[in-house]
Amino acid sequence: MKYYIIAGEASGDLHASNLMKGLKKLDPSAAFRCWGGDLMAAQGGQLVKHYRDLAFMGFVEVVANIKTITANIRFCKQDILNYTPDVLILVDYPGFNLRIAEFGKIKGFRVFYYISPQVWAWKQSRVHKIKKFVDRMFVILPFEKEFYARYDYDVDFVGHPLLDMIENMPENIGTGFRQENRLTDRPIIALLPGSRKQEIKTMLAVMLEVMDDFPEYQFVVAGAPSQERSFYDTIIRKRKVKLIEGQTHRLLQNSYAAIVTSGTATLETALFGVPEVVCYKGSYISYQIAKRVIDRSVISFISLVNLILGREAVRELIQDDFTRNNLILELRKITANRDVREKMSQDFTELRQKLGGAGASQKTASLILNALKK
User: Fold this and answer.
1) With contact defined as beta carbons under 8 Å apart, do 116 and 137 qualify?
2) Which residue, among 14, 47, 45, 50, has the nearest Cα to 32 in the 3D structure?
């Protein structure tokens, strides 16, 4: 069968690539045309556009790039018509993908959605559009099935694909990792500033300010594969911090603590059992808009860890709270306080249980193939 898959971010590239691997096991004749990244291309996908050219963060940034976004949507629609796939598989990335879902359904294509947009946090009215234009929705967070049921829309909870990724990782060899990257024996504090240029600029600069207060640790920046080393160099400058590219999961395997920009990385860090502080800061206008559109009666946190557990298991430093002094205070707690670290470890164990176990990618692939055969 012919699959047209659209992922617009690094996390989407990871999850879509694992889904493609699962589809190939069940459908040896599978052919993929996709918007995504290097991981999807490595699975044999014919890459139309790379996600690094698609990701715009925040309301202001989207408006500033509206011509580019509109042109991409127009191009995508024509490309779908030219390719005539058996199914459209949309991976998160709602601002773009929901427009494509509507177009695809109107044109008579099967439309499947893997990894739900966070409509439970804001723009819940989008559920009606999803019901109308999406044939099957596969969700990865346990509370999402119940959320959609309130709108009389039956979705499939498949578990979280990050569990597959962690289960399939080779056994951790700390000495080898340190030697390869010329790291010292000091405990590692990982800095995960995000994958988009806008957020990296904002987040990493503040993260680096705490280094002098923790001389007993070595700080290591997780470089996003979509960004050039020279870009990080303009932020790091002469600081004695190591930048490691394309090895975020191995870095987390070897870390004692982490400072993480809100997003999928907060969940990845928790699943590796690494105590973390979650941070986020956007432009003033974007933040003010977000405060007004997010339904605070439904969502009280920004990190997936806290959202899934329904309580504050990891500390969140958002917008004006994301300062050097606050970061030092919270980082000291998760590095020096044994009780805090133990409590966080217990919370992370519960988190794994709530996510339903491994096998999400293959389960989703099977559900997709069965639905297409019908």
Assistant:
1) yes
2) 45
Q: In Å, how far from its chain's centre is CA 340?
A: 26
- Res 225 pLDDT > 50: yes
Distance CA 265, CA 278 (A): 9
Q: Which whole number is the average pLDDT over 333-351? A: 97
Query: At CB < 8 A and 24+ separation, what contacts does 227-233 make?
Result: 227/52, 227/195, 227/197, 227/200, 231/197, 231/200, 232/200, 232/204
User: What's the CATH number of domain 168-354, 3.30.1130.10, 3.10.180.10, 3.40.50.2000, 3.20.20.30?
Assistant: 3.40.50.2000
- pLDDT score recorded for residue 294: 54
**pLDDT for the residue 172:** 61
Is 2-159+359-373 in CATH node 3.40.50.2000? Answer: yes
Q: Return the axis-axis angle of helices 197-208 and 324-336, rounded to nearest 10°.
A: 70
Domain ranges of the chain: 2-159+359-373, 168-354
Locate all alpha helices (DSSP H) within 134-262, ordered by sequence: 142-149, 161-167, 174-180, 197-208, 229-236, 248-253
At 301, the pLDDT band (50, 70, 90 cuts) reads confident
